[in-house]
Amino acid sequence: MYMDQYKQYKHDFLSAYDEYADPIFRFCYYRVSDRDVAHDLVQEVFMRTWKYGIQGNEIKDIRAFLYQTARNLIIDYYRKAKVDSLDQLSDDGMQFDDSAFIDPQDIVIDATYTLEKVKRVIMDLKDIHKEVIILRYIEGYGPKDIAHMLNQTENVISVRLHRGMQELKEKLDHIQNHDK
Amino acid sequence: MTNNAKHTLHMLQDEALSADKKAAIRASLERVSSQYPLVASKQGLLSNFSVIVFMRKHTTPMIAGLLIIAFGATTTAAEGALPGDFLYPIKVNVNESIGDALAVTSRSQAEWDVRVAERRIEEAVTLAAQGALTLEIQEEIKEQFEKHVKKADALFIRIADDGDVDDVIRGRTDVEAKLKAHSELLIEASQIVDKTDSDISEILNSVGSQVTTAIEAREKAESKILTQKKDVIKESVEEKMRLAEKKIKSAQKIIDKKIDGDNGDDYVKVSEKFQSAQNYFELGKEAFDNEDYDVAFSELQKAISTAQEAETYTSGLEVINLNKKLPRNKAEYDERQDQTKTDKKDTSQNEVHEDEKSDSASTTIPLIDSDSAIDDEHEEDNRENSQSDE
Q: Does position A66 have pLDDT exceeding 90, yes or no?
């Protein structure tokens, strides 16, 4: 990397931080359920991204790169913590059937529930479901973007979204029934 | 009363980094990204831990600790800021004022001012090596540098008046040696970039003039000692010998750590200085054994000064060398790429030639495709850094 490229990269990198620091934080926080760990992960995500670029490697899509790096770091975090919550992919071979999709509009949440309770339900989801739900419904990215960010096909993402919403619904129903 | 999940999930977007933490991480990233050449070194990115290491190296542990406790990550991150950076005012106005406040004795205050003056010149070296030492920044650095050197100078005069001549000689020697090394580094740094960007005469003259002041003041202080009785001079020489030995050891340690044995030019330059320090030491020791204390005093003084110069110079070379490795523009980058390819081609051809000579029975010669080897390495890096999946 020569000086002109470096200056441009530095500018783009810091702008990316301003834009994506919070979304990456949420992505980490809802998955590791610990603010301090999420905070450290955000810092590490951006540090690694900087390092990767400064070594002269091309980053075509910085947003996708940040999410992929965050995802890898979360996996590492779980491995190190020996927490067996990394669910093996069982959805990848399945074809997604549009008609079976659960629309989140149809999932009813009692308004007396605090956001904290809902957060806990989200955090309790299977990891592969959690990440797509965060990206789709909290961050508002489309399935195509998510597929690109997670280096997956759109079909896999749609399957995970569908199963994730099923799991979310079941968990919410369970809690609501339990509270009654 | 109910909400749908879509609405509720969207509300979770309110979760965000606290403003403090967001600013702290940004400051840390800004610091790291401002030190491009260091980042691009083979040691890789500076970790958070290395910020603390950096601070410990450049300030006292107590100050580093206090900074971290009192102001958190922002002030820590500011330690690496350069003039023109967002965090630079914090480095100068917050971090350094703490160091200033903690220096309670005249000697520690003088040492602190020398250190701050040195920090300004280190910044100038880094900026010069990056081709970013504009006349405006030079002026700013020069002003700050002179301010602190003059403060130290006044304090040394006060210390001398109090009768602590040894302290004064030590302090003046330190200034003289460090500034000499920094002058050399400044010149080398300015030669990395195009000549049009490298007018460093303003700052260089200022440093040179302070070196002269330090030498004159040191010599004046030394003359006070050398006019005393023989046993008093002997005591001073003995103390000087201890200091010289200590300083040579410390320089040796830094050189061993920072200079690769096979790093030709640097090794020659540094070892010349270091060798001189050792020679002065031997001469001083010999003169001491011959009870020629005046000569011993003078030679040991040179040994301390030269060893300090070697140490400062060696530390500063790191920044210079890392910047030297960087092409300044696309044309230079392309030129280097072409040169690398030509070199590789030549090496491969020579290898073929050598193999043919040594093994005439061989019909096929296995050649390593260095380009593809590099690509493979790169591929591995890419995989490691980014795209691994479940």
A: yes
